[in-house]
Amino acid sequence: DEERGKMTQLLAAGFTDSYRYLHPDTVKYSWWSYRFQARERNAGWRIDYFIVSDRIRDRIQEAEIHNEILGSDHCPVSIVLNQRSYA
């Protein structure tokens, strides 16, 4: 509950969760316990984020959680931002 509260405060302070911004209804995790076959049961948490300033959230082109990549209790997350043109 404490972590959720702090994330709510962070987002209210002018930041955007890039994955949730592009995938508002998708349930996908980035961490699973090694116990109880949590990954196989997809019983995890989403604890790896790219948080960006609200000022650049419209530049988020891609935000992904790569849960197909194995080798750790975490999986990689990635973000692609559009470059701003100054021409």
Can you give keywords for this protein?
single chain, 87 residues, alpha+beta, two-stranded antiparallel ribbon, 4 strands, 20% strand
Quick recap:
18% of the residues lie in helices and 20% in strands. By secondary structure, the protein is of the alpha+beta class.
Write the layout of secondary structure elements.
Layout: H1 2-12, E1 15-17, H2 18-22, E2 51-53, E3 60-65, E4 77-81
Antiparallel strand pairs: 1-2, 3-4
The percent range for helix content is 10-25%
Strand neighbour order, sheet with most strands: 1-2
Overall shape? globular
How many whole angstroms does the radius of gyration measure? 15 Å
Distance between the termini: 46 Å
Please outline the major beta sheet: 2 strands, antiparallel
Total beta strands: 4
Proportion of beta-strand residues: 15-25%
> What structural class do the secondary elements suggest?
alpha+beta
Count of alpha and pi helical runs: 2
| Poorly predicted runs of 5 or more residues | none
Nearest-integer average pLDDT: 93
List the helices and strands in order: HEHEEE
What does this 3D model show about the protein?
The chain has helices at 2-12, 18-22, and strands at residues 15-17, 51-53, 60-65, 77-81. With 87 residues, it is of the alpha+beta class. The strands form two sheets. It has a two-stranded antiparallel sheet. Strands 3-4 form a two-stranded antiparallel ribbon. The longest helix has 11 residues, at 2-12. The chain starts with a helix and ends in a 6-residue tail after the last strand. The model has no long low-confidence stretch (mean pLDDT 93).
